[in-house]
Amino acid sequence: MIESLISIVFCLSSALTVLILLLPSQYEPEQAKSSRSNDLKEKLKTSVQILVLGDIGRSPRMQYHALSIAKQGGEVVIIGYKESDPHPDITSHPNISIVLLRPHPALLQTSNKLLFTIYGPLKVLFQVICLWKCLAYSTKPSKWLLVQNPPSIPVLAIASLTCFLRHTKLVIDWHNFGYSILALKLGQNHPLVKLSTWYEKMFCKSASAHFCVTDAMQSVLKQDFDLQAPVLPLHDRPASHFSPILDSSTRTEFLETLDETQDVRSSLKKGTLRVLVSSTSWTADEDFSVLIDALVQYSELATTTHNHLPEVLAIITGKGPQKEMYLEQIVALEKSGKLQKVIIRTAWMTVQNYARLLASSSLGVSLHTSSSGVDLPMKVVDMFGAGLPVVGWDRFKAWPELVTEGVNGLGFGSSEELAEHLLELFGDNGRLETLRLGAQKESSRRWDDEWNPIAGSLFGLT
């Protein structure tokens, strides 16, 4: 027994030694300090790798990190998948480069719980190989590695090991908890969820610092995760391309250019249409049936007892696994005549057009329910940046950190409550305009104002 254990330890230590010897040159912070060559300034640049185990184009917060670092003179390498186009400023900035990860085979993607327990480990193994190759061999060592979490598996383990071997400082940017999202699919008591909880709490301890999106999340990380490194709340704020359009005629002109408004342009010109917009990833943590049910109730009342109410065009942007399922429901409701005063359209837009859509709409809707209770939807931040008032699911702890009830938005906890808000706001009582003024005031709070004193200071850039 002892001999076998010794053999296993010997093999593991030998494998680790080989990995270390095969690694490219490590990051050596003192090398730049001691250099007296003409390119001293170039060597002293702060270098940051940003790892997104997801679509870079649909990771706005990580793109904002990259732009802020680059604007302050740092060198940035963004690592992730390309399923949609990143922000144009990302691809055009001389201080930012992109390294793409190889996507996992489509056959390893499934929503079936039984198959997930089989395909899941295979998908993780594939990601381990790709991440290790990228972080340890395909990219140069950097001073900092900023990791988006979740997903945590296998990112945190691979990031921790490569940072240790390459003298890189690891920073985790907490958007939510990986185990709480996994619990939506498998259930809170599933063994894989418990394993994921242990894993996340174990490997996050290797980070030199942590960012998180809410004060509530900071509290959980400090108390439940027992972190000794700094945990810094860094609230989401809108980027500069989200800005209000104050002139109503300009808003109408833009809406008329969209394919989604083709059937209702006459109502737009008359002012008898309200445009409702929502952005979704069509996943389990956003129950889209809440909005559909509320629109059905609105349509019924608007065609019977409240026939003074305007038509509603609901434009839903985004991509995701449950999209087709909901589209089938919408088509069935249209055929049955339950959406007489409501039109629902889905869209996928460029960054610029999405920002203009928000600024031109009447009301924004957030269906984000928060698997952990302490994260917040980025879509609401973007809506406020565009001066758009919001109604959103508010049954989680961190909601008041984002929305001031009755000032820039309203919360709801059921389709009935949402329908009541729609009836009130789309009625002619001035409440919607009051909320719009509150949202426009909120739009003055910008990403760089939040980022510079917190992240900029940590990275030594401000």
Give an overview in words.
It contains 19 helices and 13 strands. Strands 3-2-1-4-5-6-7 form a 7-stranded parallel sheet, with helices on both faces. With 462 residues, the protein is an alpha/beta fold. The protein is globular and about 70 Å long. It has helices spanning 2-22, 29-34, 40-43, 60-71, 88-92, 113-138, 155-166, 178-186, 191-203, 215-223, 248-256, 265-270, 289-302, 323-335, 351-360, 378-385, 415-426, 431-442, 447-458, and strands at residues 47-55, 75-81, 96-100, 144-149, 169-174, 209-212, 231-233, 273-279, 311-317, 342-347, 363-366, 390-393, 409-412. It folds into 2 domains: 43-237 and 448-458, Rossmann fold; 248-445, Glycogen Phosphorylase B (Rossmann fold), CATH 3.40.50.2000. α16 (378-385) links the parallel β11 (363-366) and β12 (390-393). Helices cover 46% and strands 16% of the residues. α4 (60-71) packs across α19 (447-458).
- The share of residues in helices is 40-55%
What multimeric state do the chains show?
A: single chain
Shape: globular
The CA-CA distance between the termini, in Å, is: 57 Å
CATH topology of the largest domain: Rossmann fold
Total number of beta strands = 13
CATH class of the largest domain: Alpha Beta
Identify the strand order in the major beta sheet.
3-2-1-4-5-6-7
Q: Please identify the structural class as seen in this structure.
A: alpha/beta
Largest sheet: 7 strands, parallel
Backbone CA Rg: 24 Å
* CATH homolog superfamily of the largest domain: Glycogen Phosphorylase B
Q: Any idea how many domains?
A: 2
CATH architecture of the largest domain: 3-Layer(aba) Sandwich
Give the low-pLDDT segments: 30-44
Report the β-strand fraction as a percent range. Answer: 15-25%
The average pLDDT score comes to: 88
What is the helix tally? 19
